Amino acid sequence: FDTAQFLTDYVPGFEDSYLHFVDPYFHARGGPSVLTEYVLTEQDTKDKSQKEDVVFLADVHNVSDIAEEAFGYEPDRIFDFPYRQLLPREIDNLIVTGRSAIVQPPITRVRWMVFLMGQAAGIAAAQSIENNKEPKKINVKKLQKLLREKYNVPLDRQTALETPQSN
C-alpha cells in the first residue's frame, strides 16, 4: 500500500493511479506458468553452451553464499538466459516474465533476474510495436545490441567477468 501511495504522491504520471487489487492468499514460490518457446533446465545451468538469443547472463542462486552473488559472477555458475524463454509457445503477441515464464528448476525467482527479464521484455515490446511485428519476429540482434550498448547488460561470460560489480 505504501508503494502505491508513494507512486501517486511523487511520480509524474501516477497522479490518478490507484491500487486495484491485492491477492488475499499467500503463494508458494512455484505456481502456474506459461510453456515457452525454450524452457531452461538444470542442464542449461551446467553446460556452457552459448544461446544465440541470450538477453542476459544468470547464475545459479546459492543461498549459502550470498556474498558471492552480491559482489560478482563466478564463471562456473553463469548461464545464458535466452529470449525464447520469454515467448509463449502457443500465444502470439505476448511476452512473459518472472514466475509466469516456466523454468525447471525455478532458478530465476531472485529479484535481479526478474528485473533483467522485465528489461529485456520491455525493450522487445517496444521493438515489436515500433516495427509492427509480433514479439516472436523481432530482430533479436538489435535487442541484444540495445541491451549491451545502451543498458550495459553483459551478454557473454568474458564481458561479465570484466564488468565491475557495484556494492
UniProtKB/TrEMBL annotation:
Q: Which InterPro entries match?
A: HdrA-like
Q: What cofactor requirement does the entry state?
A: [4Fe-4S] cluster; FAD
On whether Oxidoreductase is a keyword of this UniProt record, the answer is yes
Q: What is an example of a Pfam family matching this protein?
A: FAD_oxidored
What pathway is this protein said to act in by its record?
Answer: Cofactor metabolism; coenzyme M-coenzyme B heterodisulfide reduction; coenzyme B and coenzyme M from coenzyme M-coenzyme B heterodisulfide: step 1/1
Provide any one GO MF term from the record.
Answer: metal ion binding
What's the EC number here?
1.8.-.-
Q: What are the alphabetically sorted keywords of the record?
A: 4Fe-4S, FAD, Flavoprotein, Iron, Iron-sulfur, Metal-binding, Oxidoreductase
Protein origin, superkingdom: Archaea
Oligomeric state and interaction partners are given as: The ferredoxin:CoB-CoM heterodisulfide reductase is composed of three subunits; HdrA, HdrB and HdrC.
To which protein family does this belong? Belongs to the HdrA family.
Q: Provide the function of this protein.
A: Part of a complex that catalyzes the reversible reduction of CoM-S-S-CoB to the thiol-coenzymes H-S-CoM (coenzyme M) and H-S-CoB (coenzyme B).
Name-wise, this protein is: CoB--CoM heterodisulfide reductase iron-sulfur subunit A
